[in-house]
Design brief:
Two copies of one chain form a homodimer.
Chain A (H helix, E strand, L loop, with lengths): L7 H20 L4 H8 L3 H13 L4 E3 L14 E3 L4 E9 L3 E7 L5 E8 L7 H21 L2 E10 L2 E2 L5 E5 L4 E5 L1 H5 L14 E5 H12 L8 E6 L3 E7 L2 E3 L30 H4 L1 H7 L8 H14 L2 H25 L3 E4 L1 H21 L8 E4 L6 H16 L1 H9 L1
Parallel strand pairs in A: 3-6, 6-10, 11-14, 14-15
Antiparallel strand pairs in A: 1-2, 3-4, 4-5, 7-8, 8-9, 11-12, 12-13
Bound molecules: zinc ion (2 copies).
The site of one zinc ion has 6 residues of chain A, from loops.
Chain lengths: 409, 409
């Protein structure tokens, strides 16, 4: 009775195709009946959707198939394919570049990682090197029967919302760099597979957060603050399973929350920001280590000395935990999340950060009914890269019709 | 082709009826053609929806109606009615109670307000008094041809998400008080109109924020942080036009964000919370005024002395502005809102808070591209009450089918 609403039927079909894929992704190989029950759709409706997804190669059928059983028999189990579309994830780190390919089942099927000093680097050589790594992983993914369906890149900086432009990545020294021309633009390499590929660029804390949400969902709730660190400290806020991006895409700048308002000057222009107390160089300095040389070696030394119980190192990490706890207490008061997840480099140092951090949180977010859970990431430094690759493959699961159309077109 | 999805057609109809109402609400009296253009629906579809809303009394037709023109003529303008459903809003303040009724056009048609010392008060007498005020306003609304369709109550405290229970209202001294039995339960008064009425209870900062969003939408964007103060300091976060509630409903506790982590003890258990610097009693004390007696008189004295330029008063407000700026700088770094709106009692003192507040924000949220707009509420202390009444009437606009069903049933 509401008349003709253009696109609505197609929209419902698109959404239902996506819901079927996520139902299978969520429960593993399962019958049509199980999908129907889970989604509250009829068996007939699910069968129609499943046939379309089987034709598109976005679902496969697995045994047990009784003798003589053809495709579509009720007894066969539906599964996501280990061939077909894959997501390419890339990470531009301050001291490394990494790329991986994830299949629709969420498994990493090819990956590579190199040391690369990105501090105050010119973007073009870094992006040229990243292109080679992406092409290399894409070729290896093709050998596995996978076709790159999208590329997502994690960067240690701010990305303008809805764009592929790095507005500011202080540790790389990049300002206003659009990654699209270099990574997926025409002519970046003869016959390359990246040309025209859907490209997403996002902050590493954001992609680390969605990795927690998608890959550790039995443990990580749908409302949480994810704190991560590379050189700076970043956070991502996930609300009801969705990233809070902020109007400009700059949400989550936990590193610049004031902790001691009259404290030392920060590069952001403020004073006494969290990074001045819990950032990598502040902690290394307080621990008596230098951050000038090999970062990875310095962090390993920090962890080893902390494990041995060196007083100065323990005290540096405890102070960092206190500062984190003060900034996070404010964050929890504002956002009332269910959990705080320590990710990235912080996960590694959690044993020594945690007591002070928890004490501040407990004292400053008083009411027992507001208690927040403190979780330590199990993905650690791998989170952003995995999040990127999963984000790229989920574009297909979110919108199977566009994927089908892109293969026809 | 997606099979039978139960409820979908009804859901689309419900949503389209609601969209028609908001289209008329948004542009004022307008033709069916204007509604169709705005919503991207066909004229035929809109005519069908409009007929249904006219029958339900949720739309009316206004001139110019040419002689002989019957209802439904294309030339008539559609408008929301000034009769039919109304929303009742109520506010439990620390020193007052207030109630008003708002018609579907958003106009206040009846209201009342009394002085009532709620500090450390037993809930039952306060709620009994509020019941009388609600009944009084409801009777006056009926005399205007309006029928109460819902009641929403603003409280100075935390409300458990999705419930009518005040978990904690420190200045009232209330803990774990469910308002439903006293306000809309059976037998609260013989033949009362509140029995069974849909009831919503929400924090006053939240309702103040939606009032800004709904009533001042030419000025206030859809992503903002609304800061308000009665005795405590509260905030509400609005993202893309929706309140961020937090997992337990406790989001927005800006008053307990640490400003000077080693500062004075706060009732929340923390130290150096924003309330210790910018809360009402802290500011009055710093200004050399007492907060023990008549709050309204003390605040008026504060405003008058500030206007006269008394140094101690100006300095107290400047310090409060600085503390607000520090806490809000952290908030802006985390959430990247488009604007910060100073509401409630803060609106009145904005001229003296603002310079220091803006200075802190500018220094601590450095990048020009992240500049946030600072707005002063034009609703001030009226915001929460208006927000409550509008929330109650919008339940009908959001779901006209349920309203129609409730009138039949
Ligand atoms: Zn800073
Ligand atoms: Zn406090």
């Amino acid at each position: 009775m509401t008349g003709h609403v253009p696109g609505t039927q197609r929209e419902i079909r698109r959404r239902n195709l996506s819901r079927v894929l996520y139902a299978v992704a969520g429960q593993g190989p399962c019958s049509r009946a199980a999908v129907a029950a889970r989604l509250g759709l009829t068996r007939t409706a699910v069968s129609t959707l499943v046939e379309e997804l089987l034709r598109a190669g976005l679902l496969t059928e697995q045994g047990p198939t009784p003798p003589g059983g053809g495709p579509g028999r009720p007894g066969t189990a539906l599964a996501l394919p280990d061939r077909g579309p894959c997501g390419l994830g890339a990470e531009i780190g301050v001291d490394h570049l990494a790329v991986c390919a994830v299949d629709p089942r969420g498994r990493v099927r090819a990956s590579t990682r190199i040391v690369s000093d990105g501090r105050d680097s010119a973007p073009e050589p870094v992006l040229a090197r990243l292109r080679e790594l992406v092409d290399d992983v894409a070729v290896r993914a093709r050998e596995e029967g996978l076709v790159p369906a999208g590329l997502a890149v994690a960067v240690p900086g701010l990305v303008a919302r809805g764009t592929t432009t790095v507005v500011r990545a202080p540790n790389l020294g990049w300002h206003g760099i659009d990654l699209a021309p270099a990574l997926t633009g025409a002519g970046t390499a003869p016959g390359n597979e990246r040309e025209g590929l859907p490209l997403a660029v996002d902050n590493e804390a954001n992609l680390g957060a969605v990795a927690e949400l998608w890959l550790d969902h039995t443990r990580v709730p749908r409302d949480f603050v994810h704190v991560s660190a590379e050189i700076g400290i970043g956070a991502a806020v996930v609300l009801d399973g969705e990233l809070l991006r902020g109007t400009r895409g700059f949400a989550g700048e936990l590193g610049h929350v004031p902790v001691h308002p009259q404290g030392p000057r920060c590069a952001c222009g403020g004073r006494g920001c969290l990074e001045q107390y819990a950032g990598e160089s502040a902690v290394l300095r307080a621990a008596g280590l230098t951050a000038d040389g090999d970062r990875a070696a310095a962090l390993t030394a920090l962890a080893e000395r902390a494990a041995r119980g060196e007083v100065r190192v323990r005290s540096a990490l405890e102070d960092a935990g206190t500062a984190l706890g003060i900034a996070l207490a404010g964050t929890v008061s504002l956002l009332d999340p269910r959990a705080v997840v320590l990710g990235g480099a912080l996960a590694r140092f959690a044993p020594w950060l945690r007591p002070a951090l928890e004490r501040e949180l407990a004292e400053r977010t008083a009411a027992p009914e507001a208690a927040v859970e403190l979780l330590v990431s199990q993905l650690g430094g791998e989170g952003p890269l995995l999040g990127a690759a999963h984000a790229a493959v989920r574009v297909v699961l979110d919108d199977p019709l566009s994927y089908v159309a892109s293969r026809v077109g």
